[in-house]
Amino acid sequence: MDASAKEALPKQPLKAIHPESAGRPLPGSFRNMGRHALSQPYGHDDYAWLDFIMMCHFHMQQRVFPGNEKAWASRGHAEFLRRFGREPKDRREVRSVMERDPYWQMWSALKRNTQEMSYDVRNAANDRAAPVIAEKAAKIARGKTKGSLRLNPKLAVPRYITAVDIHLQPGGYNTDDGQGVYAGLSYDSGSGLMTGGGHGKFNDNAGWSLVSFIRSHYPDLKPKVIVDLGCTVGHNTLPLKAGFPQATVHGVDACAPPLRYAHGRAEALGVPIRYSQQDAEKTNFADNSVDVVTTAMFLHEIPRPAMARIAREIHRILKPGGVMVHAEQPPYEGQPPYEQFIREWDTYYNAEPFRCPFRDMDPVAWANNAGFKRDKVFAGMSPAANMTDQGLKLEGGAWFMIAARK
Ligand SMILES: C[S@@+](CC[C@H](N)C(=O)[O-])C[C@H]1O[C@@H](n2cnc3c(N)ncnc32)[C@H](O)[C@@H]1O
User: Fold this and answer.
1) Distances (CA, A) of 30 to 110, 154, 198
2) From the CA of 333, how far away is ligand 1's center (Å)?
3) What pTM, to 2 d.p., does this model score?
4) Does the Cβ of 352 fall within 6 Å of ligand 1?
């Protein structure tokens, strides 16, 4: 992977990267997603089902979703004005009328159903493949490896992970009490299905965007140690190594199933990553020892008190001058009430209880309360980057980045 190409700024205004963003191209076949030695051995019928589900997601996101805005404009908004004689102030007020709207109810039920079908389909294939892939991952781990895997069976996995079937993923990230690779398998195939490959062939768009952000905002930084917290299967950890080849890159997660899979996947793709099972609230990295801490799509799955502890932990392990960067969705603050409302769906119907509290949070205060000076915090949209045949290119939407320098 060549990460050295020059980056050119996109001319369009920055819009958060999201499968429901208007005008996404029709996805190709799931067969085109990046494969590696740990990928499931899908057969013809599996691909037929996976392509069907990918198109269901796409159809819902691109063709059915926009009708909600029309329902709001033509019915909900008028009803709100009639009842209250003023504009709605926030997402809760929009919801007070929209949750009874028949179009929104139909969309919501179909979206939930598509999500459930998506797990039914891929987990049918995963059920067959999991024992074989677990053995493959174990064999890779026993052999000569470029990176490493350190599991901690004694770790108390936080209850906010084990108690939630996050985004309806059966068993969540710590399936089968952390014994196998199931959650890793499920996550690896799920990201591409949901986005129709929109996060890149290897689902690594957030990772490349982090690389691009760090290079452009902190050009003086030459990181030697990078820690990616909540790395799951390492989709967005691998680009950090490619983007900063001189650095030792650590992937940390509290759950063993994604980590076993992540290690096998990284080895299969030839990228040396040091994976370890740790709680991001209390890691074993020494004080002032890390140059960069990253997360990708992680913070919105963490309850607020734990987020505060994680921020303090990041501040502890960063060297003076070190940087934390988090790729996320933007806060609700400043967004039109309808936009806030339509983006809260996952909290209510997709088992993502911490998403709304995260998006209601002031990211600058969050970093500041952990010890980062306010004038050293960045919170704003930043162009998304993809690795292309021509190198790293800024294209296709943006991430909300929360960054701070110690
Ligand atoms: C949405 S996933 C992150 C996705 C991943 N960063 C990527 O780029 O694909 C959240 C991950 O964070 C992990 N996690 C949640 N709380 C954690 C904690 N306190 N310590 C370590 N990992 C945690 C979960 O096990 C899960 O794998």
Assistant:
1) 22, 38, 12
2) 25
3) 0.95
4) no
